[in-house]
Structures are given as C-alpha cells and as structure tokens.
Prior knowledge:
The complex is a heterodimer. By secondary structure, chain A is of the alpha+beta class. Chain A has 3 helices and 14 strands.
Amino acid sequence: MSLIKKYIVDIRLIVFISALLGIQLDINTVLAESLEEKGFNLAARSDRSDRGFGDSETEMTMILRNAAGKSASRTLRFTTLEVPDESIGDKSLILFSTPRDIEGTALLSHAKMLAPDNQWLYLPALKRVKRISSKNKSGPFVGSEFAFEDFTASELNKFKYSYLKQEVCENLTCDVIERTPLYDNSGYTKQIAWVDSTDYQLRKIEFYDRKGSLLKELIFEDYRIYEEKYWRPHRLVMKNLQTKKSSDLVYGEYKFKVGLTDIDFVKGRLPGLR
Amino acid sequence: MKDSSCLILKFLLLGLIGLYALIGTDNTIADNQELDIRGNVAFQLRGFTQDALWADQNSSDVESSISGEWEVRWRSEDNSQRVSFIPFARWDENDDKRSHFDLREAYWAYKNGEIELLFGVNRIFWGVTESVHLVDVINQTDLVEDLDQEDKLGQPMISLALQKDWGLLSFYLLPYFRERSFPGVNGRLRAESPVDADNAKYESGNKRKHLDFALRYSHYFGDIDLGLHYFNGTNRDPRLGVGANNSDVVLNYDQIEQIGLDLQYTRGSWLWKLESFVRDGYEESFFASIAGFEYTFYQVFEGAGDVGVLLEYQYDNRSSYEAATSADNDVFIGARWVLNNMQDGSILAGVVVDNKTSEAFYSIEAESRLKEDVVLELQVRLIAHSEPGESFHPFSRDNYIQLQINRFF
C-alpha cells in the first residue's frame, strides 16, 4: 500500500512539473519509462563511480551469529580483477585461511551477466580443482547469511531498476531504487537499495524472498576512499529478519593495482596459491 | 628393526606435538610473514565388527592410531618463488606397516609469467569422478591410510607448466618410483598372504630409478572442462604374484604407456563426468572408463543444506594378466549432504556394487567442526555379499567404524 502511495506522489509531482513546463504527456508510458530510466541511471552512476579500479586485494573476516548468539568466524583473502566490458562480469578469487581445516580452499569465479557464472572450487586435502555449478545462487555462502548471489551479483546489468523516492539516510540523502534480478535462480523477487546522492554508494539493501516477504537487510558501514576515487565499505552487516541470524563482513585495508592479470584468475593456478 | 622404526615414528610424532605446544593456537609467528607454519595432529579409533579372518592378524577389535602432518610454506616477496615442506607420520598400535612416515611435499617452485618450474616432491591430482580416480596416475597410493585410495605418497619430480590463454600444458619428469604401502602381517584389511614389500620386482632394469614421463593438457571451453594426458613409465598399480617360498605375495611393477582423458560438462544442477584411458600394460592393451553424473538439489527441506545424488559406472576390459582392479563392471550410487551450517557439516554415503558378482562395498563419511580448530570425522566401511575369490573377500571381515578427531594448529 505505502509503495503505491509513494508512486502516486511521484506521479503527481511529474504531472505538476510537466504542467508547469507546458508539456503534454502521455502519463502512463512516459512515467513508466522515466522511473525505470531514472533507477537505471542512478544505479549506473553508482556502478560507474567504481570504474577503472583495475584490480584489488583485501583480507576479510566473516563473523556468523545464530539466534542464540553463538558465533563462528572465517577469514579469507578476496582478490578481484576488473573486466572493463560491462557486458561481462569481473573475475574474483576467494582464498580461505581459517578455520584451519579449510585453509587453502579457494573459489574462483568468472562472472557473467545473465548466463551462469563459471566457478571452480579448489580442495586442498586432495589438491583437486573441481568445476562447480553456479546455479546455487540463492544458497548460503560458507554457512553465512550472505548468498552466493550477494557476492557475485553486484554487476549493473544483472538487474532491472525502478526509481522509488529520495529520503534521508543517516546524515546523507539517498535515492531509493527497486532492483529486480534478471538472472535465473535468484532467491529474491526484488531488492530495495539505498544509494546516497553525494558519493553514489550503496548504504542499505533490503532483500525480499521468493514469497515476496522481507527476508534480509544489509547495511554498508565504514566507507573509506582509496586513490581519491574508489569508495569501499569496510563493514557489511547482513541480518536475516526471519531467522534472526546475522553475518558481519569486516574488511581490512584494500590494495589497488597490485598487478594482477587474467593469468592469476585461471583454474590451473589454483593449486599454487599457497 | 621394527622397534626402531616405531621409535622413530613416536619420536617424530612427539616432535610434532611438541612443536604444536610451542606454537600453540596463537599463530602470530606465521601470520603476515612469508613463512607459514601449520599442521594437524589426529587421533583415530577403528572398531572392527568381526574377528579377523587371517592368521597373525591382530585379534583386538579396537585399533588406535595417531597421525601428524606439519606444513611449512614459504613464499618470496615478489611471489615468484615458493617452497613447501609437508612431512606426515602415523603410528598405529597394531600394524607396524601402517606406522609409517612420508614426505607429502618438499619442493621449490619458480614462476615467471606463463611458466612455472617445480623441483622436488609433490602431489598432483587429475580427474573429475568420485568413486574411482582412474586418470590420477602421477602419485602412488598410500593404501595403509585408507582403502578409498585417496591418500597419496609424495612423488619426486621436475615439472614444467606453461599457462597459456588456450590452456595449461604440464610436463613431468619422474625420476624415482614410490612403492605402494600395504598393511603388515598383524594389520587388518589385507589379503590372506601378507605382501612381501621389501622384494618388489620391476620390469625395468633401472627398477625404482626408471625415468617416468608424463604430459598433460587441461582447459575449459564454456561449460566443458577437459583434460588430456600421456604417461610412460612404471605402473603405480602393482601386479600381484606368488613369492619364492609360496607364502608371501610379491609385487610386480610393470612398464606401461597410456593416453587418457577426463571431461566434465557442467550445466544447471548437473555435473556430467567421464574419465577414460587406453593402457599398453604388461601383456596387452586395454581400455578403462568411468562415466556418471552428480545432480544437486539445492536448499533442500527449505533449509540451507544441499543434497547431491551421484551415479557412476566403472568399466575396465583388462584380462587377468594385468594388475588387478575391482572397478571392472561396477556401479556406484551415492549421496552427499552438505549442511551449509556454521560447523560445515557434511555426510557422504555410497555403495559400489559389482554387476557380475554382486559384492558390495558400502561407505559413509561424515564430518563436522566441533570448535574453531577441532574437526570430528566418522567413517564406516562395510563389505557385503563377497564370496571367496572375489575382489573384496580378503577384507570381508574387516568391516569397521572409525572415529577421528583432528586438532589443527
């Protein structure tokens, strides 16, 4: 209901402005287009603010908490190689260092847009590289509240957008955009994203499950700027509102342009990572 | 002799435990430095459900064992060089052959762009299937560790790997042969006559020092991962013969030549797998293949866990002149349940059934993390419908349940 009201407010505003400008509008078509376009443009502005980072490397700690307050942690190294072509996704490599029994386990991903990603898992006990299915987008990543798609689906063209409204978020102003996954096997019917209008960074995402109910809430904290250009959050807090479990991702310092190339993101190099 | 080797093992294990005590769980020495020291110690308890079948086998139903693995890794600052040193040791209460020491890895590797050169002892895995690792021919099996043949002895080698955008090409020179480990007279899971491991026979006059050679190409094309290999050298699988005194089993290590392939097609929830080789063996050329799939049901029972269903068919047309295999006309059916919980719990259960003799080998493997550095493993191995003369009959009274606790440091 409230969503419809917000749309109506926007419609009124646009009709009013159009009237002021003396423009004749076919309200229905232009309106639909403009909300989608505006949503896409805002998302694109956010996505493109990151362009040219080249490659990056960071260490992170993932802390998992259940409803009873019990916790466990994993530490991992996360490296990314930017693929400039917006129709192809980036390449990424996750290497676990704790818990110690999974030390050396690695996940290599070549992200695609709408086609399934290519993923390989390296199992150090057998020194085995295994191509794995990337269909499991909605599955939990190493037992956390983050799904695989929460890591790999930040690409612009993986979603359809619609602009909702602008509102205050903490001490900033945020554009609120609804985004609907275009790729198959998502666990979400939609996501509502808050993007600030100063630095164009994500501040919060709400995830709606396949039944359309609010499932999770992700807060991005501790943004720091690198090379006067690239913003990175250093703390992500994902709360599952249905199970009361939560997962935090705490990032260390990022290193940019460490000289990584395609050859560092091939399956043949996985056994030699450590 | 036996006593002294046992003593050495105990000493090594004590050394490992001592090292662990020194380093403790606080790994600050290792973190943020180029030198990384880790490892684990494990306590294993096997409970056999029946008395032993053969004379001299230990009569105790419960067998305990301790193992330790120490991992020392070094990497140069510019990432171009790395060194790995991984000694492993096990002490077994009953079987002095299962008490053993091995260097799993001890190598130096140098990388420059597309080229990587490696000198020393290493472990290499090839293949895609689950129930048999047909094309995984570089390393010798450390059979006393586990019947599943997934534990391997370190292989001395010089290898050169060339990573191009069209794939990975690897050359291996293998100058020294490792003999397979077998249980001793007192050990369970052995044939009627114990293996005379000290008097193996070789087809090559150079014996263990025959220079083996292998070549492999691997890459992926869209949804297909492909591996091709060539191997020329000493067969890792021994052909069993009768010894001079007619009581012990003698191992014959033949010269073989083979080409093979491994292929996986990954589509949606399906992994389709194939491994094949053609081998010029001792007396003849023969063909072996394993084909099957893994289908995964994600987030089953509305929960976080995944259930995978596995089916594989094992085929091999070798005659009895060649080194024996049990995987000649067998079907493997299995299921893997990955819980995706905080403790990373998982269960893999399966059975291999011989289509002709209907003997069956059941296996269950489960594990869960108890706390940050402690993992508990459960293993069950059962043999059913096995008649004298069939592959698994010598072990048919060696059904066991095993509990293992691993402490990582």
